[in-house]
């Protein structure tokens, strides 16, 4: 299969993972969902380690892996919570703000230089985010803030991952991230946790399986083609989210989401274009953590 097909399938499976989480609604406690998402992903990850004969002794920089897992748990929790209250397409659109955060944080933590054009693109992108959020007196009770805050935590996780991948294998990095996230989320075990019924158990298992498949397809696509060529396919998540949200959850997208989403997509697209022109690594290329 071509790199474009692998990338498209990766995006689809990430959306399907989110759909399973949304279908669970609030029947399962939040940290229980986070735990099972990571726990069920451990099995296929271990199979990949065995298949490629990867040694755990090759893992290094454990402090960065732990930091990435901590930031990842925060982002994962906020995103999963937002899925219970925010439309799928709205959540996906706001999650693109991680591109803006990564660009900004890269200046301080990776000593990268961003030009005035990118700064302007980031500003327009955040204007789009503000339009989607529709600020008002009740802004702090707006669940749409959750994907935005999650994107900030995700950006910190990506900064850690960029440093990790300099000396670590990608599959080993996925394994240690998944393991640490499972352990951290299990620490929140309490009496509110419930035993899932059969249908919920299947959905929980699918979150881990779909998430892992999406990561494998993502990695495979970047092995076959440059990340800058594949990055625009990330926007197909908006189409999948729109149709799944409409037909499965009867979600109707408001005009402000269309207008703000257009600004966000145009801003991120321009950043992709500049990354390709400057032959740098596309910031969205490693932003999929789960």
Mean pLDDT, as a whole number? Answer: 84
Indicate the proportion of strand residues: under 5%
Unreliable segments of 5+ consecutive residues? 282-287
Helix content: over 70%
How far do the termini sit from each other? 23 Å
Give the oligomeric state.
single chain
Sequence of secondary-structure elements: HHHHHHHHHHHH
User: What is the number of helices?
Assistant: 12
* Structural class category: mainly alpha
- Radius of gyration over all CA atoms, rounded: 18 Å
Largest sheet: none
How many distinct beta strands? 0
Task: Specify the overall morphology.
Answer: globular
Can you put this structure into words, describing what you see?
The chain is mostly helical. The protein has helices at residues 3-24, 30-51, 62-83, 88-95, 97-109, 116-133, 145-164, 170-186, 198-224, 227-230, 236-249, 255-277. The longest helix is centred in the last third of the chain and has 27 residues, at 198-224.
In short:
The chain is mostly helical. The protein has helices spanning 3-24, 30-51, 62-83, 88-95, 97-109, 116-133, 145-164, 170-186, 198-224, 227-230, 236-249, 255-277.
Feature tags:
72% helix; 290 residues; mainly alpha
Any chance you could write out the topology, listing elements then pairs?
Elements: H1 3-24, H2 30-51, H3 62-83, H4 88-95, H5 97-109, H6 116-133, H7 145-164, H8 170-186, H9 198-224, H10 227-230, H11 236-249, H12 255-277
Helix pairs in contact: 1-9, 1-11, 2-3, 2-8, 2-9, 3-7, 3-8, 4-7, 4-11, 5-7, 6-12
């Amino acid at each position: 299969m071509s790199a474009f097909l692998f990338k498209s399938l990766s995006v689809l499976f990430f959306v399907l993972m989110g759909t399973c989480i949304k279908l669970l609604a609030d029947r399962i406690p939040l940290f229980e969902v986070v735990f099972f998402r990571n726990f069920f992903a451990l099995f296929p990850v271990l199979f990949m380690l065995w298949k490629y004969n990867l040694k755990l002794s090759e893992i290094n920089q454990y402090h960065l892996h732990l930091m990435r897992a901590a930031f990842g748990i925060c982002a994962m929790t906020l995103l999963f919570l937002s899925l219970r209250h925010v439309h799928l397409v709205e959540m996906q659109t706001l999650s693109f703000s991680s591109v803006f955060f990564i660009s900004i944080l890269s200046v301080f933590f990776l000593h990268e230089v961003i030009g005035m054009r990118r700064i302007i693109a980031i500003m327009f992108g955040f204007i789009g985010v503000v339009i989607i959020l529709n600020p008002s007196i009740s802004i702090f009770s707006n669940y749409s803030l959750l994907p935005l805050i999650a994107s900030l935590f995700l950006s910190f996780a990506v900064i850690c991952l960029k440093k990790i991948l300099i000396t670590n294998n990608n599959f080993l990095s996925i394994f240690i991230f998944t393991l640490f996230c499972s352990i951290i989320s299990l620490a929140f075990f309490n009496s509110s946790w419930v035993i899932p019924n059969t249908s919920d158990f299947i959905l929980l298992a699918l979150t881990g399986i779909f998430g892992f498949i999406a990561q494998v397809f993502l990695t495979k696509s970047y092995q076959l083609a440059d990340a800058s060529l594949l990055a625009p396919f990330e926007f197909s998540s908006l189409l999948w989210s729109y149709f799944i949200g409409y037909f499965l959850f009867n979600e109707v997208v408001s005009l402000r989401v269309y207008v703000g989403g257009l600004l966000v997509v145009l801003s991120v697209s321009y950043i992709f274009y500049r990354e390709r022109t400057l032959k740098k690594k596309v910031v969205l290329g490693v932003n999929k953590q789960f």
